[in-house]
Design brief:
The chain is α+β, with helices and mostly antiparallel strands. The chain is 38% helix and 26% strand. It has a single domain, classed as Alpha-Beta Plaits.
Length: 283
């Protein structure tokens, strides 16, 4: 009878933990009340200051976010990738598809800083590198939300780069779109047809234009409230220190993790959730 009681107690504790986890997830999703929080997300990674190290860092972040999407069972599609001269990438664009993908991903927007012993420095010196992440929602039926006149864009086709194959560098399927009023350039080369690449690129452009509109709206609100809002794209949100100690720290919330390897393998939910809670308290 005592063994049965112990089994019931153990089972009860497990059920309580599951209930707490479900309630915690429910609370987080209540914070995701933005118009596009349930939408898919487009993440654009750009290497910053730091030369080859920064390009290597950008590639590390790309892997981290792809692993994060995998942990959440979200679909992750690489839309564009520009290789670095020696190593890493200059930039990359991925689309993450799944419920709340944008709501969670928006917490990662900003500049990410890496401190480590450079593998590209013969003297073994410590190097600080930067990479930025831009996050925009995927807008379905974007024509109803954003007006893009044909006169405002220049569409260029080119041969897709890639890892071999009969059609690589033979058919111009890649599409590059330049938006004249804003100077925004988007490119997609991953789809099989030029038409698909153009549709995806137009969706990417619409998402970026919508983000600009939202930022302008937030600036007006902050002006009315008399608040000083930092809208600098180069504002640093998080530091990843590999040397002389191991620590990942978010500068907005103070949340930190000492297990750098786990973070780089996509375990970033703690940072995302703390940011969402922090933002909710701030509002």
């Amino acid at each position: 009878m005592e063994l049965d009681d112990e089994g019931l107690i153990s089972e009860s504790f497990e059920n309580i933990k599951k209930l707490e986890s479900a309630l915690d997830k429910f609370d987080l999703e209540q914070m995701l009340s933005g118009e596009y929080d349930k939408n898919d997300a487009i993440l654009t990674i750009n290497s910053g200051a730091g030369g080859t190290d920064a390009q290597d860092w950008a590639q590390m972040l790309l892997r981290m976010y792809m692993r994060w999407a995998q942990i959440h069972n979200w679909e992750c599609e690489l839309l564009d990738r520009s290789e670095g001269e020696e190593a890493g990438i200059k930039s990359a664009i991925i689309k993450i598809s799944g419920k709340w993908a944008y709501g969670y991903s928006k917490a990662e927007k900003g500049v990410h800083r890496l401190v480590r012993i450079s593998p590209f420095n013969a003297n073994g010196k410590r190097q600080t590198s930067f990479a930025s992440l831009e996050v925009t929602p995927v807008i379905e039926d974007f024509e109803k939300k954003i007006t893009i006149s044909p006169d405002e864009i220049e569409v260029e086709t080119m041969r897709s780069g890639g890892a071999g194959g009969q059609n690589v560098n033979k058919v111009e399927t890649a599409v590059r779109i330049y938006h004249k009023p804003t100077g925004i350039v988007v490119k997609c080369q991953q789809e099989r047809s030029q038409l698909q690449n153009k549709e995806t690129a137009m969706q990417m452009l619409a998402s970026k234009l919508l983000a600009i509109k939202q930022m302008e709206h937030e600036q007006k609100l902050s002006g009315l409230k008399g608040e000083a809002m930092d809208v600098n794209f180069g504002s640093q949100i998080r530091s990843y220190v590999f040397h002389p100690y191991k620590l990942v720290k978010d500068h907005r919330t103070g949340y930190e993790m000492g297990n750098v390897d786990a973070v780089m393998n996509g375990e970033i939910d703690g940072f995302v959730e703390e940011y969402l809670r922090f933002g909710e308290k701030k509002n």
